[in-house]
Amino acid sequence: MHEEAQFSSAEEQLVYLQALIEAEDHSGLYHALADKESADLARWLESFPANQRHQIWLAVPDSQLGEVLAEVAEDIRTEYMTDMSVADVTEIVKGLDAQEVAEVLDVVEDHLKTEVYESLDEIIRSQVEVLQAYDEDTVGRYMDPETVNVKQGVSLEAVQRFVRIHKLLDDESQEIMVTDKDKHLLGTITLIDLVKQNQDALVDEFMYKAFTLNDNMKVSEAASVLRARELYFAPVTNVEGVLVGQLNIADIIEITQDDSDMTLKHMSGVSDEEELFSPILQSAKSRGIWLGINLATAFLAAAVIGQFEAVLEQVVALAVLMPVVASMGGIAGSQTLTVVIRGMALGQIAGNNRVWLFNKELWVGLTNGVIWALVVGLISHLWFGDPKISLVISIAILVNMTLANLAGIAIPLMLKKLKIDPALSGAVILTTVTDVAGFLSFLGLATLIILH
Amino acid sequence: MHEEAQFSSAEEQLVYLQALIEAEDHSGLYHALADKESADLARWLESFPANQRHQIWLAVPDSQLGEVLAEVAEDIRTEYMTDMSVADVTEIVKGLDAQEVAEVLDVVEDHLKTEVYESLDEIIRSQVEVLQAYDEDTVGRYMDPETVNVKQGVSLEAVQRFVRIHKLLDDESQEIMVTDKDKHLLGTITLIDLVKQNQDALVDEFMYKAFTLNDNMKVSEAASVLRARELYFAPVTNVEGVLVGQLNIADIIEITQDDSDMTLKHMSGVSDEEELFSPILQSAKSRGIWLGINLATAFLAAAVIGQFEAVLEQVVALAVLMPVVASMGGIAGSQTLTVVIRGMALGQIAGNNRVWLFNKELWVGLTNGVIWALVVGLISHLWFGDPKISLVISIAILVNMTLANLAGIAIPLMLKKLKIDPALSGAVILTTVTDVAGFLSFLGLATLIILH
Hints:
Chains A, B: Acts as a magnesium transporter. Chains A, B: It is a multi-pass membrane protein. In chain A, about 70% of the residues lie in helices and about 5% in strands. Chain A is mainly alpha-helical. In chain A, the strands form two sheets. Chain A has a three-stranded mixed β-sheet with strand order 1-2-3. In chain A, helix 6 (about 65-70) crosses helix 9 and helix 18 runs parallel beside helix 23. The longest helix of chain A is centred in the last third of the chain and has 32 residues, at about 355-385.
C-alpha cells in the first residue's frame, strides 16, 4: 500500500525505462513491466519512438498483450498487428471482453477476422457482432453489451443470491437492470441500494428511471450529456426501448479527452493521427497538408498586397506597418473563434441567442478596435511623424478588428450549417479573412488618402 | 423511461427556454425547470446572457438553489451570492455535502463565513474545515472526505449488515475501505465483490491494494493518472498513510475538461474567466491584455522590417511576398507547439527523449522546408520572373520553417523549466520568433543578394 502511495511521477518512470532501454537490459525491462496495469503498459508504449518502443513491446507479459493492444493508440496497434498470424490473433483475443475484441479486430484484415471469430466463445462473438453492426461514432459501438438483468417482483436478497450463484457482476458493473420479458428496460437499481436497503424489499421499490441513452446517438454528444449530469454510467436502449447495453464513464473519459484534443489539434493544423512519437516522415506528411492550405491562403493575401504596389513604392513605411494590422485582426478573430467553438461544443448556441452574440462581438470589436486604433496611431505617429499614415493605420485597425470579431462568430456558424467541423477549418478561413481584410483596408485607404 | 430515452438535444431545450423568457412566461419557466437535475439547471444558467439569466435564476426551485450554486461557473456564483444575507446563505447550504459547502463558501466574505459555519451540522463542518485546509489545486481540496470504513477480520455479511443499519453508503460510494485502528488504509473492497462473493468470507480475502492518491498531489496530475488507468475512484491518504477521503471520477471529469479548455483558451489568447455569455465590457477587457501583448510583438516585427527600408524601396515585390514567409513559419511552429504541449500534459516528455524529439523536429522542419521552399520559389518565379527573388524567398522559407519547428519544442521546454504554463505564453512567443526570423531572413538575404 505504502509503496503505491509513494507515487513516482510519470516523468520519473519514463526516465527509468529509458535507462533500461539504453543499457539494453532486457531482464530489467521484463521486471519493470511485470505486475503493471495494462493501461500503464499502453501509455509507456506511446511514450517512445518506434525503434525503442519495440524493446518495451517485447517485455510486455504475454497474458496482457491483448489488453495492451486494445488500449494503445491505433497506429501502434496497427503496427504490431499487421503481420500477425491467425494463431497469434486468436491467442491474443482470449480473455478479452467484447469491446476489446472489437477494438483489436478493427485493424486486422477481413479474411483473418472470420477465422478469429470462429475461435471466440459464443457469447463474446455475438456481442462483438452487435458492436460492429453500429456506425463508428455511435453509442452502440462504444457500449458494454453485457448487463446484469433481473425481473420485477423479486426481492433484493434474491437478486444478491442470483448474482452470487451466476458470478454475474464484472469489474465495470454499476447498476442492475430491471427488464420485462421482452427485455424492455423498466428501470435500474444501484449496487448501493442493493446493499444498503432492506433485503426483503422488492426491486420495484428501489428501481428508478435512470437517464438512458439511445444506441444510435452520437457518442460525443452522449459524452457531453453524461459529463454535464455527472453520471457514472447509463443504460443504452434501442429505438423500441429494448435494453442493448450500458455505457460506462471510463469509455467516455477517453472520448471527452479525445474531443478536446481534436479541437486543439485541428485549430493548430495538426492531423488527428499525429502523436508526439510519430515517425519523422509520417509527421512531415500529415503536417504538409495544412502547410499547403496555409500557403494558398498566404498567396491570396500576397495577391491583395500586389494590387497596391504603386502606393508601397511611394511610401515604404506602409510595408513596415502592414503586418501589424493583419496580426491584430488575427488575434482578435481567434479569440472570438475559440469562445464560440467552446460554446458550440457545450450546446450553448441556439435559437435567438445568436443575435445577442453577434451584437456582443460587434461591440467588443468596436470597443477594442477604438482603443487599439488610438494606441497604434500614436505609436505610428511617433515613429514616422506622418499624420496621414497614422490616420490610415488607425482606421484600418478599427475596421479589421471589428470585422475579425464578426468573422470569428460567423465562420463557425456557417461551417456548422454546412456540417463541417468548425475547429478543423475555422482557423484557416479566419486568418485568410483577417489577412485579406487587413491588407485591403490598410493599403486601400493609403491609396485613397496618401496617393491622391 | 421512454420519455427520457427520447432525448431532446441541448440546442432544442435552449430554444424552448428562450421562447419562455421572451414571452416573460414565468409560470412556464417555473414548470420547465421543475424536476430537473441541478446540473442541468446550472448548465442553462451558463447558457444565457446576464439580463436573461435572472429569469432562469428566479425559476430555480428553492430546494435546489444550493446545489445549482455549487455547480455553476464561478463568476455566476459570485454574482448571485455577493448580496446574500447570512440567513440566505445558511438556508442555501442546508443539505449540501461538504464539497458543495466548501465550493459555495469560497465566494462569500469571511465574516459571513464564520456565521454560516456555526449553522452547519457538526460532521459537515469538520469535513468542510478539512477541505479548506488544503491548497487550492490539491487532491485534498477536491476529495470527498466521507468514506465507509471497516476493520479487518469481519465477514462480508457483517459489512453488509453494518452498512444497512447505519445507512452508510451515499450516491458516490464506490468501495469500502479497510483500515486499522489508527485509520491507516490497509486495502479496499468493491461493492461488486461485497455482493458477488461468498458472504461468510472475510474482507481480508477480497480486499486489494487500490491505487491510492496522496492528499497533497496536484489535482490535475491525479486526474491524468486516473484517466490513464481508467479508474472510477481512488482512496486518498496523507503522508503517514492515514485515510483522509476518496476522489471520485465525477470530480475529475470536470478537472480534465477544464484543463483541456484552459490549453485551448490560453493558446488563443483568451483568459480563463471568459465564457460565451460574459458581458461585453468584461470580454473586451479580458481580451485586451492579449491584444496588447500581441501589439508589442507585432511592432517588434515591424521594427525588424524597418531596418530594411532600403531594399523594400527598390524591390516592392519583397513587401508583397514578405507575409508568406512569416505565415508558413507560424503554422509550422504552432503545429510542433501543439504536439509538444499535448505530450507534456500526458507526461511523455522526460529524460533523453528530448534529444530524439529535437532531432525529429529538425528533420520534419528540413523536409517540409525543402518541399515548400521549392513550391514557393516556383510560384514566385512565375509571378515576378526574377530568379534572385525566388532564390531569396526559397532560402528564407527553408530557414524559417526549420527554425520554427525547433522553436516549437524549445519554447515550451524552456517555459516549463521556468515554471510558466507553456500553453499560456508559448503561442505568443513562438509567433514573435517566427515573424522576426521570417522577416529577418527574407529581407536580410534580399539585401545581401539583390541590393549588393
